[in-house]
Amino acid sequence: MGNKKTIALTAVITAVVTAAVSCSVTSYVKDTASVFLPSANDDAAFYNKIKGIEQILDSSYLYDYDKNELREAAAAAYVSALDEPYTSYYSADEFTSYIENIQDGYVGIGVIVGVNDDNQIEVVAPFEGSPAYDAGVLPGDILKAVDGVEYDGDSMSDAVNSIKNGKEGTSVNITLIRGEEELNIDIERGDISSDSVNAEMLEDDIGYIRITSFNMESENGEHSTYSEFSEKFYELKDEGMTRLIIDLRDNPGGVLSEVCDIADMLLPEGTITYTEDKNGEREYYSSDAECEDIPIVILINGNSASASEVLTGALKDYGRATVIGTTSYGKGIVQKVYTFYDGSGISFTTSKYYTPNGICIHEVGIEPDITVEMPEEFENMYASMIDYEDDVQLQKAVEVIKEK
After folding, report:
1. Burial of residue 253, with CB atoms counted within 10 A of its CB: 0-12 exposed, 13-18 middle, 19 or more buried
2. pLDDT in tens, 91-111
3. Of 42, 129, 237, 350, which has the fewest beta carbons less than 10 angstroms from its beta carbon?
4. 213 has catalytic annotation
5. Coil/strand/helix, residue 195
6. What is the pLDDT of residues 36-95, one digit of tens each?
7. Distance CA 164, CA 160 (A)
8. Candidate list 104, 317, 328, 344, residue with the active-site label
9. In what order do the strands lie in the sheet with 197-201?
10. Is 317 a known active-site residue?
11. pTM, whole model, 2 decimals?
């Protein structure tokens, strides 16, 4: 008997609650009918829906919230839904960091990251000589957490901000996945403003120039990669350089204008590269007739990406360089940047780029003229860390260029 009463009472309470919820839903529908009415204009319907959500939250949501934070999150989610790793929305603070990353000068640990097919944050490459480089961070490492907070590909900007959110000399703890191993590494933040071009003279008047990234001049006056390359090139030439090895191994790319300026120095008059958008519209980047006519060998590997591939593809197509190493990364798409009124911004993919011979290397890479694999014990090391007597790729480059 008691059980029957309990069941009956529960049924009554449930009926009352259901009725109350029904009345509430009906009330909201009436209150917001003007903004939820269907519209033949999809844009108007979308804006009306957002306006309706804000009206509901403003009038009756139980908890306090920051409307600006919601709007920022909505903008980020809108762009993120494209599910394209090279297109991202940045808040004002994030956008400042993004711009610093393509300039030569900021505080951080000096690492380029991307999103892999498993929606993980993957290290493309650290900058040579950076704190991340010195701490042993390797291409292919998965960034799992920063200071104990876990991140994935959807929150890559947050992870990058956390890494850079500190003054020079402070430490950040990062958790990396390397194969089956999980690593926790403390890295001291530093001034990432080191030169992106290193040079030396090898035997038999062979010049050697390593380009670690392609950066534009920063606001604090740090030199651009083009100006560094030009300076090093003519210094070597004054020392008697007659042949040149350009090392682009582990170079993740950078600013297109910088690499085109370097290519212009080394190519005859003609096309360096061209881009093509979804409407078939093309934009050409060209070199003039003035050219440094010197035999060249280029070194690449699987971490040579983007702007590195522009330079490699152009010199290869013109027959100006022999390419040695392993197949490059294969990033053949171009991004542009737009800044909004509040300091936020968006980086978005606009086109594919092509080599002078009309080849798009996106997701394919550039095949070297001469394939040289590194010995297994050096496969996961940066090329710059390997001594000359063990660097079979550089040895091959020297052998080949001596014959030019």
Report:
1. buried
2. 887 787 777 666 555 678 988
3. 42
4. no
5. coil
6. 555 567 888 888 889 999 999 999 999 999 999 999 999 999 998 998 888 989 888 778
7. 6
8. 317
9. 197-201, 206-211, 243-247, 296-300, 321-325, 370-371
10. yes
11. 0.74
